[in-house]
Amino acid sequence: MTVTVHGVEVSWERRHELFSLDPTVTHLNHGAFGAVPTPVQRAQQRLRDELEINPMAFFTRGLFDRIDHTRRHLAGFLGADPEGTALVANATSGAQTVLRSFRFTSADEILLTDHGYGAVRFAVERLAAHTGVGARVVAIGLQASDEAVVEAIAAGVGPRTRLVVVDHVTSATARLMPVARIVSAVHDKGVPVLVDGAHAPAMLPLELSAIGADFWVGNLHKWAFAPRPTALLVVAEAYRSMIEPLIVSWNIGLGFPSSIEYAGTLDYTSWLAAPTAVHVLRTLGLDRIQRHNAELAAYGQEVIASALGVEPAALPQPGPGPVSMRIIPVPPELAGDFAAADALRLRIAADLRCEVSTEYWNGQGFLRICAHVYNRREEYERLASGLARMLRTSGGTRQS
Which string of DSSP letters, residue by residue, matches 107-119? Predict the structure, then answer.
């Protein structure tokens, strides 16, 4: 099926033509900042043109209705209650909105896992410095079963725990967490859960209402093709009245979600263009996208691991579900600490003309690759070949 969206033909056969990405660079890190299809770029540009023609009209005549319409459209896409959903800039700001809405004291504790996103951890550490709230980190093995994950988090909940924070899909380790089961186990102990779903929208089939999280945040500018910055904060009904905005502006008296969304003269065009991104996803076929991406990421992991001499049994798997990111252990001579891992990322970008993510987690360096509709198998094969050469010139031996 071919559909024309803002003057651009959208079809599965022509999916590689939908992006403005530099063709001289191999783009294997979609999970970092996403990539916006040209029809969505055009939708946002038309909104910007409208804004500049008459800023007064754009901001004061109908903006709130348009935001409300967008919110309802995106909430429906993710299976969330529109009345409990707010548009926010990104998952980090949504998570911090939740954290700062609690009145934590030194008698309280926030439970995290060692797979959690760094910016959220920093936010908790800052809260600890200002309020005295404790932070407990639960260690979860890289290849732990879902049962072990649920048991470890539930066992970590103590009498001081006021909030549990868990990732939907982890950033550093590309692990799909059994969030619905975690929420159920933690709720049995009477504690609310914040799910950081930064990578979940469009990567995974979602019905957020079924997960039952008290708070969920997720980016639509990663896998869901929306312009940056676009994200959703979803809050259970029992907690909506306590949510306070990070920026107090004119809609403060309206409560959640309006008080969270409006913060003066921001650029709201990314939000308003996001429904076009959903249209592109649905035109290409969301199930087909998810299947394609997960299979391609798995292929990339295998071919790169083979080039580095990593045994299949040593490859971390994401868990059941169409996760379109994978990690591959790299030898210590390439990434033996945080600085070396970052240097490896920059070296791959400069020498191999390839964008990837490198991680250093729990004493091990990893290469993280992603897959989306514009990627091809040969891109992972080229990276694998280049990494093998890089390993040889580093004088290292391959892993067994």
Answer: T-EEEEETTS-HH
